[in-house]
Amino acid sequence: MIPARILVASSNQKKLAELRTLFADLPTEVVGPEAPLPEVVEDAETFVGNAEKKAIEIAAHTGMATIADDSGLEVDALDGAPGVRSARFAEDAGRAPEPSKDAANNALLLERLTGSRERSARFRCVLVLALPDGTVLETTDGTVEGQILEAPRGDGGFGYDPLFLPEGETRTMAELTAEEKAALSHRGRAARAMHARLAAE
Question: 66, 90, 110, 201: least buried by Cβ within 10 Å?
Fold first, then answer.
């Protein structure tokens, strides 16, 4: 049974809009938070663990079915790092977030890959839908394979997008339009998988 309303556990309007559009043909209303959500400590060692923890805690707090995600970059030459620590990669290494956190993360990634011929990587996203009683209704995963370039290209997107060249593309994630990125992104793939699961209910 699909919940009548699903809360997106994020204040990111792009995530909300993407899920609203994707779930438009389902018998549910996708809504964003009406008030600031409590901070959930994302201390799990996996994307699934963090997304599940966030979905369950926010659903219990709001009394609404909640969908939450965790995502990041896995680089093969770094044994899957930065992984769940993608947003805090430079911070964990004691680097100041100058001129921005994204720039610091990208600079550290390039530094760690200096001299490496192995540049394969993937963006991964896990989505979890949980009920207020702690029941996890659905868990989906989306990945996009690619390569890490030796220098950033493009000024769109965010995070590691300027360094990530998706498989089969000649442009980085940061050089794609928002629509093109949504069509092949890890989050888009996880969301479409969630839609398929819910549609089959």
Answer: 201
